[in-house]
# Entry
Amino acid sequence: MTKKRRLAGVVAAAMVVAAMMGLPAIASAHEGEFAKFDNCPSTNPEVKKCITSIVESGEFVLGNKKVPIVNPVTLQGGYGAINFETKFSKFFGATNGVTLSKSPQPVPGGLAGFINCKEVTNFILRTSCEWVFENGLTGVNSTLELAQGPEAIKISELNLVFAKGTALQLPVKAHLENPLLGANCYVGSATDPIILNLTTGTTAPPPPNEPITGSVGKGEFLEGGQIGKINGLKIVDNAWSAPGATGCGGPIIELLLNPIVNASSGLPSPAGKNTAIQVATSYSASTKAVNEH
# Structure
């Protein structure tokens, strides 16, 4: 048996084993602009369109802390036919398992910017805060992650185009990353997620927040009209609530750190005190067109 035949046999066997174990398939390589949809589940007959949306700017205000979006965040996957009763389409996650990219956003001011001990009014917590956090480990990142599976995402082309109602509903959690906070410091969870109802229209938040307005952006077509591109798509929500932080510092230590993080950042935070603004470039195409390229 030649080396080429042996190699082919090994590759074939590996593919069979991967399929038996339920491992994700290798992404298809598409041509030109269609490469943006390499991780779309386009061969699933339920999926009618592929989407790749790249958030390039905006901000996330959680309690009394504002974090600008400076590192791109990508949402990718596919969605099915429109349910005209709900106006939503079923969402399908990316084939590589990265439906929403984990893109860390640096918190302005680092640890001192997120946990300001002087803002803690409780004397015991403030003293503990100063003892724990006033040191050199200052960098803090905040990373938005999906709190539930991709199937929990809701998307509406109709609401997006007509700038009325929820265009994209995302169940998320904010991962606060710093050596002192440990690996599992989160605001939100699978059982208690932050629900963003993002719209291109105008929000109606409770006070003290005031209404803000998104934008449908400007559309263009690529690849002979087969790919729709939206520039300057702006989706917003400032009517959501956020739970308190959990898991900060790990077991036992979180009994001290969770209250400090919450007291300093204004968590849990009721609706009307939080804001999400995402400015993106979005691409979509029919699965038929994607599969042909």
